[in-house]
Write a structure and sequence with these properties.
185 residues; 4-stranded antiparallel β-sheet; elongated
């Protein structure tokens, strides 16, 4: 009788072990499938701009013109609305969005600009007035009013255009180019 119980217990333990092995095998197979799906379809991290003017459309590593436009305006607001006190933080934020290839050059440009702003105790502001974007080229041209103040005196107030270009590095959209352009560009 004890032999039958032991045989039944051993059989039950074997079935439970086999069921557990099957479940673990299926879980592993599902995880491998998800990894392949992410590799094939691409996993993209999308940073949401602080200025949102509508609903964004994203498919794989593609975004729409509205996203490109809003994100470009966000970069310009961060980079161009500064005081001597906020210059270093602004630079740090812009550089955190920048592609590794262009990090050094943009860092030098922003450092030189910040040195002038701190030395002259200047404040700069930019108010975007419109943007044209190309999702295919990951580029936006943003126009707006740029102003510089020394103390309370406005020393510059003019319309300017900026080109903001993005690069997709496999998982994120990173800032590739940010520069002032002429009307002809």
């Amino acid at each position: 009788m004890d032999s039958n119980r032991e045989t039944a217990a051993a059989s039950r333990i074997t079935r439970q072990r086999n069921a557990l092995a099957l479940y673990l095998g299926l879980a592993l197979l599902c995880n491998v499938g998800q990894v392949f799906e992410r590799i094939i379809n691409g996993t993209v991290a999308i940073v949401t701009p602080s200025t949102i003017s509508g609903e964004y459309k994203r498919q794989g590593n593609r975004v729409d013109e509205l996203y490109i436009s809003d994100h470009a305006q966000d970069v310009l607001l961060t980079a161009l609305n500064i005081t001597p006190e906020t210059a270093d933080y602004s630079k740090k934020l812009v550089l955190s969005m920048t592609d590794q290839e262009n990090y050094g050059a943009l860092d030098r440009d922003l450092t030189a600009r910040n040195d002038v702003i701190k030395a002259r105790k200047m404040t700069t502001s930019f108010a975007p007035g419109g943007a044209k974007a190309s999702a295919k080229n990951l580029v936006a041209i943003v126009e707006g009013m740029y102003s510089e103040y020394v103390g309370t005196k406005r020393v510059t107030h003019e319309k300017r255009r900026y080109l903001v270009r993005w690069k997709f590095n496999g998982t994120q959209f990173k800032l590739d180019t940010f520069k002032e352009v002429t009307k002809d560009a």
